[in-house]
Design goal:
The structure is a homotrimer of 323-residue chains. Chain A has helices at 10-25, 43-57, 72-97, 102-118, 120-137, 144-150, 152-168, 174-186, and strands spanning 189-190, 195-196, 201-203, 209-210, 215-216, 221-223, 227-229, 247-248, 253-254, 259-261, 266-267, 272-273, 278-279, 287-291, 296-300. With 323 residues, chain A is α/β, with parallel strands linked by helices. In chain A, the strands form 3 sheets. In chain A, strands 1-4-7-10-13 form a 5-stranded parallel beta sheet. In chain A, α2 (43-57) packs antiparallel against α3 (72-97), α3 (72-97) packs antiparallel against α4 and α7 (152-168) runs antiparallel to α8. Chain A is globular and about 70 Å long. Chains in contact: A-B, A-C, B-C. At the A-C interface, α1, α8, β13 and β14 of A face α3, α4, α5, α6 and β13 of C. β15 (296-299) of chain B pairs antiparallel with β14 of chain C.
């Protein structure tokens, strides 16, 4: 635009002045004013890494659409080298941003990348078992193929298993970026730090929150809106690192909307936690926890809607609640 | 990389060995080890099909941004042929993966595609009525245009109506892929099998789950977090095909967070189901169901926060719950 | 396809006939039958605008991946001119679709755009304070950088602050499109009309709904599934413009799943609203509101699962709820 010296309308001049104001604003030195490029892992590259990793985990199910290669083994080989290259590069950026001595960054990034790749067969084994758990547990599943290509629960769990490997390898930033990408896609929010056992099945999933220090056993099944969370605390950042989230033992089912809170809370094996239960204490093995009937009130026929609630000593008694 | 025979660093060698390990892992013969290409419908093609179908359903509202065509009728004609081509192709893949005799696949795919296209005016009529229901029911709507181009409820419902046609035509996989795509975008999870009447309005929508065998009448309005689900069962895959989800009759409003469960559960016409209600039995027509006050406890002034709950015989009585 | 006159299979003929039927359907004159192009803001352009605005708000954190520019100040300058150009164009389209006199549209669009850009430093200041609130309040945050590049709460809040400026400038459509884009990505649904104070922290976030006329003070912290909503009303469109959503004063924390409803409802400063609380009346400052124990029932050992609920006078008493 600056080339058009023959005509600069008032709007253009105003924009240039506003640009100056914004650029000045960058000089205030706050965290958001950092201008250095390439000091953080690249979210778009990490998204692509996830897509590529899915092609390695489920080789026949996710294809590269830009070109067709009939020799899949060759294409997987190329894919793995591509993954190794980008993961090593992004890991180096993450380690550097975490303050690692520059001399160590490259070799550490390569070590971590090799370690990550060596654990892919283990992630595939876990994904295979998660797939079986989903198929066996869901009457709506037409086939295992349907589950692999479209179920958000399997998608989010598989991303979490991949991110968890990097979390255990102490890579900064990247595990969280991966988990938030899966969260965006599925509405399922599982911290990469959570430890999840075998045959883990998430049905529906929207609104699930599983905290960083959760521990989940085998054959666990959870439904949408379930929270494995922390009890309140004023500690904020001081709590970083402590076990704040519950332990779920083997063969537990947790129905929709239930909340299980607290680092010391253990849900004993073979228990069933009913919908909307709110649990802050441990539950013994083999227990069924359900919520007593919330007393429902029924009013029939032509009673007019009352937009205001009648006075009551507690929260109100409005007949109809809109959100 | 194999061309660089003059220099292979240790990292590269390690990656090649890891590649071998991963390729060997594919030989284990599990479902996830399938290597055949092109045996499943292509998720990216189906996403594009949805975008193209939206341009057909709402022709002035969703444009092809890559080129401008001033003769919209011509461009719709091209669009429909493009849709017919890709839908027929993906349907053939789906039928084939479902085990259909190869001799029948192509003609069946074409028959299904033609049937689907013949039902587009019917889907458009339903979308028009859903649009009116949204505008009439939502004080926050500035205009009908705003609803078409940005409301997640209308988006998810329209995708479901399209997917439902394919579901009724017994196409494997594709209906579910479409529904999960809408679920990813909107947080609204409606199984393509659900039967939905006219003037259906979803407000906000995040967390809604509507099960495969739900039946919904006309003028039904539902809010975020509502579940039309199944009662628990150990049947898993054996329950496939039975009616497991409720029936909602005409003119029913279901407020946020309510759950209605069970294949025999009928919510009678002209009923209102209050927020957070939990219903596992039928409700007669003209009934208002609300939840009795959950007793709220109020504590004022300088009482210190108690991070641990006091002992109690049931689930705990912590003052503050964090998730 | 019409060039292939030598061979037109039956399928092609059928498709052409179906095309005619669909084109005829457009002649019915409903709102969805509008064929005029370019009369609504372009959703894809607005998504890109959001991405570009994020590069201006957090200059070192979101990069343009298609090319690298080492002089960031130059690239920000180009970016701002690009934003000004597209925002002005889309605003003009929005004003025009809202019925503004064509003679005023262009100058108004430019005035609005300049006003918007002048408020970017103010949005950046608010984003910086939101960032601090997130870091201080979340034990799971590894660093401030992690929050900027991956936290959905900060993302949705920042988009809302940008959209709110346009909302206050009375731009039709665009604020809502921006908010719904953030909603798609994060599951957090904040109307662009909501007024939000400083140091606003959303943790997890999926399922949050904040209504158009909400007012939120400083140092407010909310968790997933919280609703700031309206009480039910039969008014529909007639309620447009009235205050329907609550006021949250300073230093309030609202835990997961709580609902606060009503335009006259005020949550007094320094209050804490416990998880799943349902509030339709004002709460005095300094109050802790928690929900009395929902009575949990525990059943141990080998009691068989009961798939049907036992008869009860209210909603049912099924042991296990599946969704």
């Amino acid at each position: 635009m600056t080339e058009k010296k023959t005509y600069i309308p008032a709007f253009e001049i105003e924009i240039q002045e506003l640009e100056r104001a914004i650029l000045e604003d960058y000089g205030r030195g706050r965290v958001i004013d950092r201008l250095e490029l390439f000091t953080q892992p690249d979210g778009a590259v990490i998204e692509e890494l996830i897509e590529k990793l899915f092609r390695v985990v489920f080789p026949g199910y996710f294809r590269d659409h830009t070109y067709r290669i009939f020799n899949l083994r060759n294409s997987i080989s190329n894919l793995l080298e591509d993954i190794a290259h980008h993961l090593s590069e992004q890991t180096a950026i993450a380690l550097r941003s975490g303050g690692m001595d520059e001399k160590k960054v490259r070799s550490e990034a390569e070590r971590i990348t090799a370690e990550f790749l060596s654990r892919i067969p283990e992630v595939r084994e876990a994904a295979d078992m998660d797939l079986s758990a989903a198929f066996d547990g869901d009457p709506a599943a037409g086939s295992r193929e349907e589950i692999i290509i479209s179920y958000p629960g399997l998608y989010a769990t598989t991303v979490q298993r991949l991110a968890h490997v990097l979390y255990e390898l102490n890579v900064p930033l990247i595990p969280r970026i991966m988990a938030e990408y899966a969260h965006n896609r599925t509405g399922i929010d599982i911290h990469p730090g959570a430890r999840i056992g075998r045959r883990f099945f998430i049905d529906h999933g929207t609104g699930i929150v599983i905290g960083e220090t959760s521990v989940i056993g085998d054959n666990v099944k959870i439904y949408q809106g379930v929270t494995l969370g922390a009890l309140s605390t004023r500690e904020g950042q001081r709590a970083h690192g402590k076990k704040r989230h519950p332990t779920i033992e083997n063969n537990v089912t947790i129905y929709a909307g239930a909340s299980i809170l607290g680092g010391d809370t253990v849900i004993g094996h073979d228990s069933i936690i009913g919908s909307n239960a709110f649990i802050t204490r441990s539950v013994e093995p083999g227990t069924r926890v359900s919520v007593s009937n919330r007393e429902l009130q029924f009013r029939s026929g032509g009673s007019p809607a009352k937009p205001e609630a009648e006075p009551a000593k507690s929260g109100g008694d409005a007949w109809c609640y809109i959100i």
